[in-house]
Amino acid sequence: MLVFPLEGPILLTGFTPHPRNVNMIRNWMTEMKKWNVGILIFNDVEVLDFAGPFEVFSRTRLVPGLESRRSEESAPFRVFTVAKTSTPVTTTGGLQIIPEFMFSDAPPIDLLVVPGGLGTRSLLSDQETLGWIRQVAAKAKKVTSVCTGSLLLAKSDLLENRRATTHWGALDLLQSLNKSVQVERDRRVVDDGIITSAGVASGIDMAFYVVETLYGREVADETARYIEFRRTEQ
Amino acid sequence: MLVFPLEGPILLTGFTPHPRNVNMIRNWMTEMKKWNVGILIFNDVEVLDFAGPFEVFSRTRLVPGLESRRSEESAPFRVFTVAKTSTPVTTTGGLQIIPEFMFSDAPPIDLLVVPGGLGTRSLLSDQETLGWIRQVAAKAKKVTSVCTGSLLLAKSDLLENRRATTHWGALDLLQSLNKSVQVERDRRVVDDGIITSAGVASGIDMAFYVVETLYGREVADETARYIEFRRTEQ
Q: What pTM, to 2 d.p., does this model score?
């Protein structure tokens, strides 16, 4: 593994890199500063629940325009999927995804995305998945969910006394899982330390909300323009 | 293979199915009437370009509500991915998809979806892919594209003298591929016999437009409500 000083030392020690190494160093530094976005996937996950945030986070660039999208250089996120095992996951509707990582070999996750779908129902009693979510959430800088992904957050004891939302068809179920949750019934994105969103497509709004929180409105709006998504107010 | 009379004969011949078979027959008939939606995928396809229409078409139900989404019974579409070979496809951003079919074994396609992405550039000179698109389009009931997928339709000679659109960053390229195309620069969805849409997220609008055209506004709006997508006017 390459160990490289992240900031400061390069200048403070008077180390002057050869010009041909400058870009390489900039790339290393960029690489080391990227947020790792881990998206949980499982059988019967809803396609747009994970694909929406995957699209937004993986296409965000700090440098605007078309050219910057041709490389990862100004990408602030490194996005990957994680599943319990390495077995391909079959989504609702039958799309087959090969997870990039499994629970046991996933890199540290800065931003966790827990999507929803019919597959969440059986995961509500899956201690391995709930335990993994709890463990990753404890170290992540941000924890998010889309749709019925918030049911898994509730079962992982992450929504205690928090405002949260879910798909409109699961609002009562969310409440029943934890009486202390203040269920928001009319919001697409709810940020109360943990960020939950309403059904399916609102995961795209959630992702843009996170991008805006971290990198400002301009970066979020410019990325929305790139993917031709019309952001709406809450 | 089961060969079963599609319509009419059941009643016309006086054939009276046993009550326990009525549902089975209804299911068979439903199955046989479903539209096959074939979504082309390839390396460096843009995630939301194919995942948006996949979500919309695969979650459309003719019976409204939550319950109908738990089965395929009232689903008017059967959605699948098709790639040149059976090798997993890596999207822009690194999502890995196992294609359900390859060119050589895909079932007949009623509705073709050609998504876009950076991978379209090398496909502009890939005769096997262009030939496959041309061949499928000749038999399909509807041909659609998302984003720079329309470049592939233009190179397959399908947009001759038609109004069409693409991602805002590729409008000039589309025009340069075929002077006879009337490039629409301000529309999200353009239907001129062949249905093209603007960048990335506008593929979701395109899919809802197709659903509305085939099954009416109510079915489209109810499906949009299910996936919590806010449809916008053209």
A: 0.88
